[in-house]
Specification:
With 493 residues, the protein is an alpha/beta fold. It is built from 17 helices and 22 strands. The chain has helices at residues 4-15, 71-89, 94-110, 112-123, 127-148, 152-155, 176-189, 204-216, 230-238, 251-261, 286-298, 318-329, 350-366, 397-400, 416-423, 439-448, 481-485; strands spanning 34-35, 37-39, 42-44, 51-56, 61-67, 160-163, 166-170, 193-197, 223-225, 244-248, 267-271, 277-280, 310-314, 369-371, 387-390, 407-413, 428-429, 431-435, 453-456, 471-472, 475-476, 489-492. The strands form six sheets. The protein has a seven-stranded mixed β-sheet with strand order 14-15-16-13-12-18-19, sandwiched between helices. Strands 9-8-7-10-11-21 form a six-stranded mixed β-sheet, with helices on both faces. Helix 3 (94-110) packs antiparallel against helix 5 (127-148), helix 4 (112-123) packs across helix 5 and helix 5 (127-148) packs parallel to helix 7. It is globular. The protein starts with a helix and ends with a strand.
């Protein structure tokens, strides 16, 4: 037998175990001091002669100087895209276009560690998410659309598909590389050329992607990348030789784009904000549901347009769910995005941190009860503790406005009809989640919830073959699947 004294000493040692730091190496990726604009297959200096600094939000340290594209730069990129479309890309056999997409997909897989580190450094998201979610999905989208490139006439039966021309694409800062793949892959598969503007705060993976295009030997001008702030995006939207605009970002900017394009004949797809409802019924597997709740709101620091930021819990299981949720939140590790043990990384920017802080304070002022687990935040960088609000009324700002941060509002319901009514009480309609063991209830809820995507007994699951998009103020149009190809095609009926 083990002596009692030794057993006590062993128990004390075990109870003190904790995660040791497990940082990913930074030197896997080389960041240049200064970047130009990628136009016509090469980097060029901006005609605007302006640059700005992009930073690491976890340490508030500068990473690189990035070009600020002006009106003349955007015009130059559109000309390059138009020339490539007219002389080469649209005339290329679809099977040849597919080969380039396959090459891009394989190179992304080969360089996935490099891209994951850069994504986490520039965006603040945990390396586990960049490595295990963003990169595999980005490569998968190129693989998927490469497969459709030479099958468009079969995909759209009795219609003759043809490319539309030059696509202007504007992507957000929460999933920089993944959103790039969502936009570029279907556009190229359909035979179009692209001018893409990455988000102002997270341009580096898009600029590294230019090297992937070089490796893949993509013809010059097929993909052009112009960096800058909202002014650059506005110039791209306004350019008369762009045939389609695809935008992912805030509802306010989406409305401005729609107003600007009204009457121009340009095609437009918008994937905008959300205030998703995650609905948990009393027959749901509670531990599984709690994991889905945590994944739904704290994944990527809540910087997710489809985040399950409103939790609706059936009254009979409210106490059990809240107890389990608080216990699970106490295990979340907030810290260095490059540490493989980190669950919640850095907030993307000071501006976003201020917005989150302001809305959380409004929740406190309006009377909601706040819970934040004990958490020691790093001294430098932009951080926010995972937060849950209870005793929330439907009218509170935290239940109506998109926070875009790690903040959850919990409400209750008694019947399925009440759950639907409360869940739909929002100007948004991007996504929702349903947790129940009854298949019939899942189907009934999915039919009644006004959301473009409804997950059942899971959350934040994506697949290249599955269309994604919203209703109401969450935008229109779909990305992913055949639905994602259609906006980039014209048809001779």
């Amino acid at each position: 037998m083990v002596p009692a004294e030794k057993r006590q000493r062993t128990a004390a040692i075990v109870s003190s175990w904790d995660y040791a730091p497990a940082p990913e190496a930074k030197d896997i990726v080389k960041i240049q001091d200064r970047y130009g604009l990628f136009i016509g297959g090469k980097f060029v200096e901006p005609l605007s002669k302006q640059h700005y600094t992009t930073i690491d939000p976890a340490h508030e340290e500068p990473l690189a100087e990035v070009a600020q594209a002006g009106k003349a730069d955007v015009a130059r990129a559109v000309r390059a895209a138009r020339e490539a479309y007219a002389t080469r890309w649209s005339k290329l056999r679809p099977s040849e276009r597919a080969k380039y997409l396959y090459r891009i997909a394989r190179i992304l897989q080969e360089r996935s560690r490099e891209f994951a580190v850069l994504e986490s450094r520039n965006g603040g998201k945990p390396i586990r998410e960049s490595r295990d979610v963003d990169l595999p999905l980005a490569a998968a989208h190129f693989f998927y659309y490469a497969g459709w490139a030479d099958k468009l006439e079969y995909a759209f039966a009795n219609r003759k598909p043809k490319p539309i021309g030059v696509a202007g694409q504007i992507i957000p800062w929460n999933f920089p590389l993944l959103m790039l793949a969502w936009k570029i892959a279907p556009a190229l598969a359909a035979g179009n050329t692209v001018v893409l503007k990455p988000a102002e705060t997270t341009p580096l993976t898009a600029l590294l992607f230019c090297d992937v295009l070089r490796q893949a030997e993509l013809p010059p001008g097929v993909v052009n990348i112009v960096t800058g702030d909202g002014r650059t995006g506005a110039e791209l939207v306004a350019h008369s030789d762009v045939n389609k605009i695809a935008f992912t970002g805030s509802t306010e900017v989406g409305k401005a784009i729609q107003r600007a394009l009204a009457g121009t004949g340009k095609r437009l797809t918008l994937e905008l904000g959300g205030k998703a409802a995650n609905v948990v019924f009393d027959d749901a597997p509670l531990d599984q549901a709690v994991e889905g709740i945590v994944n739904g709101i704290y994944f990527n620091q809540g910087h997710v347009c489809c985040a399950g930021s409103r939790l609706f819990v059936q009254e009979s299981i409210y106490d059990a769910i809240i107890s389990k949720l608080k216990r699970r939140m106490s295990t979340l590790r907030v810290g260095d995005p490059l540490d493989k043990n980190t669950d919640v990384g850095a907030i993307n920017s000071k501006m976003q941190l201020d917005k989150i802080t302001s809305l959380v304070q409004s929740g406190i002022d309006e009377g909601a009860e706040i819970y934040q687990p004990p958490c020691k935040l790093p001294e430098r960088g932009y951080w926010f503790v995972p937060t849950v609000f209870t005793n929330v009324a439907q009218s509170y700002r935290i239940a109506q406005e998109e926070i875009f941060g790690p903040v959850l509002s919990v409400l209750t319901f008694r019947t399925p009809d009440e759950a639907v009514e409360k869940a739909n009480n929002t100007p948004y309609g991007l996504s929702a989640g349903v947790w129940t063991e009854k298949g019939s209830r899942i189907l009934a809820m999915a039919q009644k919830l006004k959301a473009g995507v409804v997950w059942a007994n899971t959350y934040n699951r994506f697949d290249p073959a599955s269309p994604f998009g919203g209703y109401k103020e969450s935008g229109f149009g779909r990305e992913g699947g055949l639905h994602g190809l259609e906006p980039y095609l014209a048809f001779d009926e």
